[in-house]
Amino acid sequence: ERIRVVPSPKRIKSDAEDVLMDKRRRGGIEAAEAVESGMDVGLGTGSTTAWAIAAIGWKLREGELEDVRGVATSLQSHDLARELGIPLTDVDEFDSLDVAIDGADQWDPEHPHVVKGGGASHAREKLIDSMADRLVVATDDEKRSTPLSHDVPLSVLPESRNVAQEWVRDAGGDPSLRYAEAKDGPLFTANGNLVVDCDFGEIDDVDARAADLARIPGAQEHGLFVEMVDEVVYGTDESVERVE
Ligand code: 5RP
Q1: Nearest C-alpha to atom 6 of ligand 1 is from which residue?
Q2: Which GO BP terms sit in this record (predicted)?
């Protein structure tokens, strides 16, 4: 409860959003329990993970944690962690990390898979999350789905946008190029790629889908994280639950 003083990373716009942000706050703060003193920690991206980052920063300040090094998955999490006093290190200084805490756009309670990339950071997230001995996903109960059915983001070289969308159609998907929030042009990732959101409906065979996306010419990374999740910590209306 003391962590309530840390401002929410998103402005609260309505009661419904207030309830949702409360769930994410619970999930994020509880997920930070996975961090112990001396650990090297992958810091994910998004509004839920922001609460985990806030909790880690708070514990460091209070002396409940010490000697923690963070590796950020995006500029957004880097800036937040720096503001909160978490020591940061570059990813290429590590071969592995002790734990990563990251969010998800959808998670499967029966299988260790998630869809990520709502913040267009899935390439760096996949790299850092895959380096961790333990990946803890911080999320909420509204994003639960078996099978996964969320649009899968695919980052592509700008010049391959048309070819990539054609390949997605051939694989039975419905692609759409992601636009920047102001809608004044396509959204570019931090690495200068475009994002094609791929609607495949229900994804019954995640391995096959992941293979389809990986073989697209010009594809850089897709947002299906297959068999990567060790634990999901998710906020509900009143509590926080976990699935291992
Ligand atoms: C960014 C991500 C985020 O983790 C995902 O979009 C969830 O974000 P939020 O917690 O704000 O719903 O994958 O690329």
Answers
A1: 118
A2: D-ribose metabolic process; pentose-phosphate shunt, non-oxidative branch
